[in-house]
Design brief:
The chain is mainly α and 179 residues long. Helices cover 77% and strands 0% of the residues. The chain contains four helices and no strands. The two termini are 21 Å apart. 23% of the residues are buried.
Amino acid sequence: MKTESGYAAMPGDPSDAGAKEPKVAATLRFLQFFSLGCWLGGIIFFIIFTQGIFSVMPTKDLAGVVVGYSLARLHILGIVAGCVYLIATVALEKSVAALARPAALLVFVMILCTMASQYGVIARMDVLRAQMGSVEAMPGGSPLRVAFDRLHQYSVWLESAVLFSGLVALFLTARQKSS
């Protein structure tokens, strides 16, 4: 790249910084889209996956174990992806104040819902599952089963909130003007 004086800028030359900024901004925008895309894609795949797993596994209890294992990994991916998104957002805007924008706030809500689901709701479901031995064999009116089913519904609501918040955050991120 040539400087205003017509001479080629040397690597590390302050006059070359302007050429690097668009590349850094593009990389940070890529990280925003990649992190949200991976997280949302994982959730959508998980929804499709869970629709089929219960019909192909020999027992619903075994299917539940596979779903629980998969969901735990999805939650880890989501928490990491959300942190990557927020870090990229701060770096792109060069200000922590960027975290107060709607898309970043939605991603923060996604992280909180994911953590509440994994470390609150699902942790309690695991305790109930261990107490029941078999969720499938437990009568529907049993207090343990009723509590498990209620927690399962909370888990579905939290995951739905994450998905819909993520779709809105992705839309808002796509609408943002590049720096």
